[in-house]
Amino acid sequence: MTDLFTPLTIGAVTFRNRIAVSPMCQYSSTDGYANDWHLIHLASRAVGGAGLVFTEAAAIEPRGRISPQDLGIWLDEHIEPLAKIVRAIHNFGAIAGIQLAHAGRKASTAPPWEGGQVLDTSNGGWHPVLSSSAIPFSENHPIPEALNTEGIQQIINDFVQAAQRSQEAGFKVIEIHAAHGYLLHQFLSPLSNKRNDEYGGSFENRTRLLREVVQAVREILPSDYPLWVRISATDWVENGWDIEQSIALAEKLNSLGVDLIDTSSGGSVPNAKIPFGAGYQTEFAARIRHEANILTGAVGLITSPEQADQIIRTGQADIVLIGREMLRNPYWALSAAKKLRQEKFSPVQYERAWL
Ligand code: FNR
């Protein structure tokens, strides 16, 4: 019986358990560079027993940052500070993963603790922001520039370059961020994509950019290198992106060599009615796993070890990603091991705590 502490092998990589630190923006970079905050923050979660530690969304180009303080990977100079973090995570027994992202029309905002408002060029923001169509995220957001064909090619190239640098930094998993209303999701969702060229309209056309990004990234990675995609399984809005389209997309991504669908939801529009509650997105991970026949990750209000273990035991997902609970408790995985198995599982330096 597979449980939360059964190792998981995907291609060349074996995770010691099925607990991942979900990507979480720290809004703590200058010019995209990782620093001591990222090192201590991420390495702590490796010491804390997680099987996989994801960085926050790393921007593939500066205009793709949610805030000026986002992590980035658009320069070769970004590699070494990231490599230092990767080495620490691997030294402490976890696998290091990176999430590659472009915020599209949701870029250029202040960090949440400064209010999260849109920043214009006079206060550190940038203009224009980019999207599939010239439709703002909300009335408070600027009208984005709809990418033309050259712009789309540039985005694909930027993802490829970012993937190349990620590999050079030593990351063993790359996740493409196509969820939460960011650029790739802005192409997927009919709520934000009103294009009438080959990148808009039909399901085939709306999914084209993501498929092209995946194909181009997959081409430069070894075939046994884990490539994941995070999607929003539904916009939670009628006539928006939904679970049926997600299942169809997952089938296509599977055939393009994507190993796992990290299944989140929402973020396309500000007013969606989302039924937040324990494990509220897990059903989508389960449906994609069973109907598209691909590995999935479950995320979203998974907080207790028993809940996480049950998701794995009942085959709803292959790995769980823990977000905020990992901020509250970097040792969540160690606590879960103790609770579920009552056996020693910790760095030797902490052994006496378990006697
Ligand atoms: C997030 N989330 C997020 N998601 C993502 O795909 N990339 C990111 O960079 C971020 N950044 C981020 C920052 C912070 C502070 C939070 C709290 C969340 C979403 C996160 O990965 C996760 O999907 C949600 O938080 C839901 O899981 P939990 O927190 O309920 O376990």
TrEMBL record:
Q: Which residues form the NADH:flavin oxidoreductase/NADH oxidase N-terminal domain?
A: 3-342
Entry cofactors: FMN
Superkingdom of this entry's organism? Bacteria
In this record, what's one Pfam family?
Answer: Oxidored_FMN
Q: Which UniProt keywords apply?
A: Flavoprotein, FMN, NADP, Oxidoreductase
Q: Which PANTHER family match?
A: NADPH DEHYDROGENASE C23G7.10C-RELATED
Name of this chain's protein: Oxidoreductase
